[in-house]
Q: What sequence folds into this?
């Protein structure tokens, strides 16, 4: 059941970087289809997708079902060590190839890859299970239950069949997704992003080097097709083959998946989110405090060069315009310093450049620090700008009171970085009521408490297929 996806093959495919597939332990090479990356428009070559190999039959018991969770964790920990090994040719080749298609510079890509491997730590993985499941034994066995009437049953977190639609902005999500798919013992098909059709296969090939016949390896496939290609998606996105789609990405990607949903085929969505900062007037009390708050705010803006969902885009600052402008100047200083160190200087997109240039001419309504050259930019306004700040761009919104900032919170607000820290408790209920999902110290949007909810849910609990075996009232 083979099919063609993407664009037409190139006549000179050897000049195009190759992106092989991984099919449950088998690496599939080929340059049958020429694809194009989303951000840079760079071409890369893939094989055709052999759909008969990526669709697991329902009659097949998931390979990981009866593998103890402790053994899965041990294998993941060993994988993490191998990902960081200097002689891991798969990861070295992956980084080289990814630097041709990804918008992030090499240093950020390399750091992200190294940092992501830290997730494959025994303490981290065990904490994830303990926080996601009231009784993690349900992953390994049928757990006996009884209610107050004496009725007995058994419950199991059964291995699901998952399609993962991966994001293109963060290479590190690949490591986490592999680990989570293994922990819930799923049969996994990863749809790789055009910005990074390499990392997932490099991870899986590393696993196969450790043990090509391990049940984790036999539970994983990774391929690429152009999102929205109905010749592929109308075949794969069916409850006959998979239980759930775990989808990351922008609005278009999520909307594309939604149209395939129906009875028996669910969506677990890590959909588009925007993170913000809330800075109280205490930050403006003196120059030292102002500089500290601006530096912390810049830390949150510049996570993955502002390519991550947790990267702050809007900073609501409480105080008079003169003081807020002092904050803007220091914020620009710290953003520009990080931008210079990153080696990433991409001019803003044309529409955004034109909007900012117009604002610069309206100095009675806006303040602008920096230029549109991708080396750091701060825009001060009385309301959030109507474009999406990205590429090292911060929109400082001046407010008389942080109470005024709460009205801009909605269900798309992911992380709120807050200063001063002792006022956080006064706002967390109102932020949650507005739809926000996380409040942290300003400057700490990136790290998170291990095992905490992500996007207002416990993902692993959502991934599994919960099965109950009712055993009656227990009478003989």
A:
């Amino acid at each position: 059941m083979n099919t063609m996806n993407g664009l037409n093959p190139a006549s000179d495919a050897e000049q195009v970087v190759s992106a092989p597939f991984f099919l449950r332990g088998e690496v599939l090479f080929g340059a049958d289809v020429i694809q194009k990356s989303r951000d840079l428009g760079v071409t890369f070559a893939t094989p055709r997708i052999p759909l008969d190999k990526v669709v697991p039959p329902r009659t097949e018991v998931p390979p990981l079902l009866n593998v103890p969770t402790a053994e899965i964790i041990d294998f993941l920990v060993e994988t993490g060590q191998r990902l960081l090994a200097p002689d891991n040719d798969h990861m070295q080749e992956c980084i080289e190839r990814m630097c041709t298609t990804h918008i992030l510079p090499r240093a950020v890509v390399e750091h992200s890859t190294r940092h992501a491997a830290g997730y494959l730590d025994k303490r981290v993985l065990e904490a994830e299970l303990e926080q996601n499941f009231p009784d993690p034994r349900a992953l390994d066995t049928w757990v006996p239950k009884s209610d107050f009437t004496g009725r007995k049953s058994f419950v199991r977190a059964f291995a699901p069949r998952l399609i993962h639609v991966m994001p293109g902005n963060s290479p590190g999500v690949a490591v986490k997704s592999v680990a989570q798919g293994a922990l819930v013992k799923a049969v996994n098909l990863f749809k790789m992003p055009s910005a990074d059709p390499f990392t997932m296969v490099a991870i899986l090939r590393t696993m196969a080097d450790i043990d090509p016949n391990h049940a984790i390896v036999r539970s994983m496939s990774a391929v690429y097709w152009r999102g929205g290609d109905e010749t592929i998606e109308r075949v794969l996105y069916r409850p006959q083959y998979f239980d759930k789609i775990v989808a990351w990405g922008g609005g278009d990607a999520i909307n594309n998946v939604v149209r395939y949903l129906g009875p028996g085929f669910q969506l677990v969505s890590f959909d588009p989110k925007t993170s913000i900062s809330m800075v109280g007037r205490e930050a403006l009390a003196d120059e030292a405090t102002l500089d500290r708050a601006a530096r912390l705010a810049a830390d949150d803006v510049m996570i993955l060069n502002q390519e991550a969902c947790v990267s702050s885009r809007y900073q609501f600052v409480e105080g008079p315009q003169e003081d807020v402008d002092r904050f803007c100047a220091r914020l620009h200083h710290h953003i520009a310093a990080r931008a210079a160190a990153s080696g990433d200087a991409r001019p803003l997109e044309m529409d955004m450049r034109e909007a900012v240039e117009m604002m610069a001419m309206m100095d009675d309504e806006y303040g602008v620090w920096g230029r549109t050259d991708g080396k750091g930019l701060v825009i001060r306004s009385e309301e959030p700008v109507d474009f999406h700040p990205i590429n090292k761009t911060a929109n400082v919104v001046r407010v008389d009171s942080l109470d005024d900032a709460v009205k801009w919170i909605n269900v798309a607000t992911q992380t709120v970085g807050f200063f001063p820290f002792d006022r956080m408790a006064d706002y967390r209920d109102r932020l949650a009521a507005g739809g926000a999902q996380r409040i942290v110290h300003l400057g700490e949007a990136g790290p998170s408490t291990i095992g905490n909810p992500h996007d207002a849910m416990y993902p692993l609990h959502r991934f599994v297929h919960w099965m109950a075996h009712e055993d009656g009232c227990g009478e003989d």
